[in-house]
Structures are given as C-alpha cells and as structure tokens.
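User: Quick sanity check before I run a bigger batch. Here is a single chain. Can you write out its predicted 3D structure?
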Amino acid sequence: MTVLMKGIVFGESPRWHAGRLWFSDWGAHQVIVLDREGRHEVVVRVESFPMCIDFLPDGQLLVLDSAGRQLLRRNAVGSMTTHADLSAISDKPWNDIVVDRNGNAYVNSIGFDFPGGEPAPGLVALISAEGVARVVADDLAFPNGMAITADESTLIVAESHGCRLTAFDLGPDGTLGHRRTWAETPGDHPDGICVDAEGAVWYADVGNRHCVRVREGGEVLQTIEVDRGAFACALSRDERPVLFIVGQAYGGTDDAEPTGQVWAYPAPAAGAGWP
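Assistant: Done. Predicted structure follows.
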C-alpha cells in the first residue's frame, strides 16, 4: 500500500479519468486531480457538503452540489453552470452520482438529514442529458455509492443502512426495474463502490476500515485493511491496475490536523463500467 496524498480534510468520490485520479475534498470544498506520483492540483471549488463528481461522455465535469440542490457542469473553459435543478425532487442531502455512456446521470438522495436526523428511505433520480430530472427508484436504506456494469445492463447501489448491494436492470429509456439484492454484506455498511473487469465489485466501509471485493451473490474475494475509515474507492484502467482508496479518521476524533489520505494498492483487475 502506497500513500499518495495526505492532508485531506474529508476525501470522497474518487474517479479515474484521463489517466489520473479525481476526487472531492468535501471539507475543503475542492475537487482535486492526483497522478500516480502524488502530484496534485485543485481544479474546482464548490461550497457544498457533500459534493460528488463524475464526467459526461465529452469529458465535462459534473459536480453534485448537495447544499445547492443542483447538479453543476464545468465547461471547457473552467466555468460552472447549472446542469439540473434538484430542489423539486428532494430537500434532503444529495449524495453519489454515476453517468452512463449516453450522458444520463443517476444521482441519489439519502432521504433524511445526516447526521442526527431520523433515518428515512432514500431515492435515485435520473437526470437526462438535457438536464431533466425524475425519480426512478425509492425506498432505499441510505443509498450511497453507485456503479453501472460494463455491459450497461445493471445499476448497482450500495445501501449503507441495509448492509447490501442492490441491483436494478437498466431500461432503454434509463428507467430502473427488476430490483434485487446483488450481494449481502453482513456486518458491513458499504459506502463508495466500483466495478472491475472481472465483474466483481469493490466497496469501502467506514466503520470497519476496509475495502472488500465481492462477486455477485456475496462471495468475498479480497479484503484490504486500512488504519482509518475507508469512504470510497476507484480503479485505474491501464496495464497496471491500481485500487485507489480515499479515507480519513471519522467519529469523535480530536486530531487538529486533517487525517484524510489517498492510498494506492495493486489490484487483480482494472476498472470497468461507469464511473
């Protein structure tokens, strides 16, 4: 395991794009780009918490601005504009995002104020390439990380409070159907996820401080332990597959300095699907 970067306030939402790792530092309200040698730069500042990211097929960055209840788009010259207004769908915190090859963005809301709010069901909304938003799934137990399989047939959602990965068939118009459990994760609360080229899913777990690779059905293939909460993970897509893990100390820490880090770990298979 290699530590690529330290000093992150609250790292989340890693994405492999154009040969580098992109991720959000929620605490610093920044989107950061990081290469394999640990060189990094800040590319966007958005005053939001959370603020997950993904990319349109043409490479434009999307930022899910939870505080503003909107999806933002960064154009080629670096300015930000509203891609979709989410305020009519939910006033609760918005969380993760995944974009398919056609530019449709799936975003989820956890459904209650966190932390401190009474848990309530969350939802998934579909935002078309034109920026039109509609709900396509509900009754989810703290929807968190999301990924689309390489064959474009399935959306997988981590239900953190449900201790499971839940799958939906993707319809031609982007609707979700045939809801089912893709894998139970007993004792684990999956957060960020990614899919690999062998069809397995990696999920991060904050409380248990690890990332786990599972097959459909729940068979555990590999577990990577870290020394603080693992919030999300992403895979490179080259001849040297690497699993990038973003995490930090969480829950009652009195550390004066930021504890967030990005780790790199050799992976058995490269990333696949979306993001």
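The first strand starts at residue 2 and ends at 8.

User: Great, the batch can go ahead then.
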